Amino acid sequence: MGLAKHNKSEELKEKISILPDTPGCYLYYDAAGTVIYVGKAKNLKRRVSSYFNRTHDSIRTNMLVRNIADMKYIVVPTEEDALNLENSLIKEYKPHYNVLLKDDKSYPWIVVTKEPYPRVFLTRTRLKDGSKYFGPYTNTAVAKAVLNLIRELYPVRTCRHAITPAYIAKGKGRLCLEFHLKNCMGCCTGRIGEAEYGEMIDHVKQILRGDTQELLDYLRGEMERLSMELRFEEAQVIKEKYMLIDRYQSKSVIVSQTLDDIDVFGVDDDTDQVYINYMHVRRGAIVRSITLEYKRRLDETVAQLLDYAIAEVAARFDIKYDEIVVPETPETPVAGATFTIPKRGDKMKLLDVSARNARQNKIDALKMMEKHAPEKRVERTLERMKMDFRLSELPRHIECFDNSNIQGTNPVASCVVFRNAKPAKRDYRHFNIKTVEGPDDFASMKEVLTRRYTRLMEEGEELPQLIVVDGGKGQLSAAVEALDDMGLRGTIAVVGIAKRLEEIYFPGDSVPLYIDKNSESLRIVQQLRDEAHRFGITHHRNRRSKGQIISELDGIKGIGEKTKEALLQRFKSVKRLREASIESISETTGQTRARIIYEALHSASPEPGA
């Protein structure tokens, strides 16, 4: 599809024709002058032209192109600059067709202020004031626990006074309760110097950076030195600090003893919703983790979404990357960083941990959504099934068929019905096979489908959007023949599910489809198949029991059809009837008939398998 076929203005065509072959960002506007899409490009001219010179596979991309009325662009030096600019423009304009970052929370940081006597506290506001910020902490409880540890270890001041040498010299400070509780060293009165206080703050920063091993080595040395000098009380104070830090370190999530300063991005790709987890590993321990949720708008690839996530994390946390572990290479290079796609070893394990975190965040988000809006889960499940089974509409009405004949006797079939992904048990149906001689599953399947849908059409009932047959290619072919004969081929979608291997067969396709074992679609189809099997087996057993009881009683004089039916209803099988006492049988038949039945059943040897 050329540019002219989109009926674009001559002015827009002219703009596109003179675009430079350089990195940059482009902005698309609709007729109302609203920014509807922001994109980045290594080569602006080639990238922008690609929107207009062909028909796209994505419906949403074609809709975007139809709505473009104007375009502007910004040239930047590198691809990475283009990515960062794109990220900023998307946040500013929130264009309709751009990928949507749904996680825009404000996470807490622990700040060490830039003052002669620094303070250490929790904040959600990150200022450019020269202070040192550590975090962010995705779990506020963890941040508070770290802060409590620091305050237990070191008497860092908590007051808000602007304590400077001039402030101390003027004697304005007054010792407060915190000093008497030994939670402060009396900074305001100069009882501790800046250098000594600064050394304490250095230890605090080590803890916040995750450098606890270096701090432990230092404290161990101090303990030994004080012990050698026979200063046992001071050594004991240091020992208590050592034990606190050691206990804190042991609670860290250790993923490797060899990895250091590595950034990891794990992905859980669930169609339109994509979750990307970021983890920073320092000295083998995970010291930071955050999950971003993206909603696709134009079928963005995982590589493109990794671009967004890497840029977002760098901007949000002021990170300079060195080595980045990813499941696949992002589109845009990062200056000074290398990408690693591991296949085995500690880095592969680390990537798996990150992907599991992303998946868990997805599960938590879905549970929260379903708690407040349970109908959304149904819609999501149906949308997934529509995609997996190549349907033209949502499968709100599904029917599943299963044949049951044990040792070739009493062939029956069952039909179970699901509406909105849930069993509709009052719509279940049993079928006794009437036209097929012997155990022929394929012919039985064709008979049952023909009877079922001929009747539904005659009665004007709605037809399902999807039929599932329990079996492989043979049963599926029989089902397709039945639909062909009724003129329903193409009106109702039909698939077959093979036993054990969970293979899904489509009409005319000899190669089965293997659906992800964690997929909601497969779970629903398995539930359908199991329910059809259970329902069919129950009916089959009832028929066999009825036949056995009636045949056993046929030769007993004075026992009519009503008595046989009553005994079948009460005892279910010949075995149970034979084991019953005369008194128990008499409750159904009366004493005289009960004695006749009891003696007849016990005078003959029981049949095998009865």
From TrEMBL:
What GO annotations for molecular function exist for this entry? DNA binding; excinuclease ABC activity
Q: Which UniProt keywords apply?
A: Cytoplasm, DNA damage, DNA excision, DNA repair, Excision nuclease, SOS response
Whether DNA repair counts among this entry's keywords is yes
The record's subunit annotation is: Interacts with UvrB in an incision complex.
Q: What protein family does this chain belong to? A: Belongs to the UvrC family.
Function summary: The UvrABC repair system catalyzes the recognition and processing of DNA lesions. UvrC both incises the 5' and 3' sides of the lesion. The N-terminal half is responsible for the 3' incision and the C-terminal half is responsible for the 5' incision.
Name this polypeptide is given: UvrABC system protein C
The species is Muribaculum intestinale
